[in-house]
Amino acid sequence: MSSQPISTRSVVKPRLRGWKAFLTHRIFRRLVQVSFVVFILGITIQHVAAGEGSTNINASPEAYCPFGGL
Fold first, then answer.
1. pTM above 0.85, yes or no
2. Which of 3, 32, 64, 66 is the most buried (most CB within 10 A)?
């Protein structure tokens, strides 16, 4: 069994370019977050515009928020 020396040099990955740079997990995460906020804002505007005495049934925006924080 031969032992190989441990390399202390760090390897730097090349920077992604083009569509690969755009389609990262961070961008996907931000897109999901922004779309969720837009959805909640749309539900909120619909709920406020209809009012409490309206005949159409609207759920409260808090019903769509998974943690009830919005």
1. no
2. 64
Residue 16 · residue 32 · CB < 8 Å? no
pLDDT, tens digit (0-9, with 9 covering 90-100), for 6-20: 666 778 887 777 777
Give the residue from 45, 44, 40, 41 showing the smallest Cα distance to 65: 40
Q: Is 28 left (phi over 0), alpha (psi -120 to 50) or beta?
A: alpha
Separation CA 16–CA 22 (nearest Å): 9
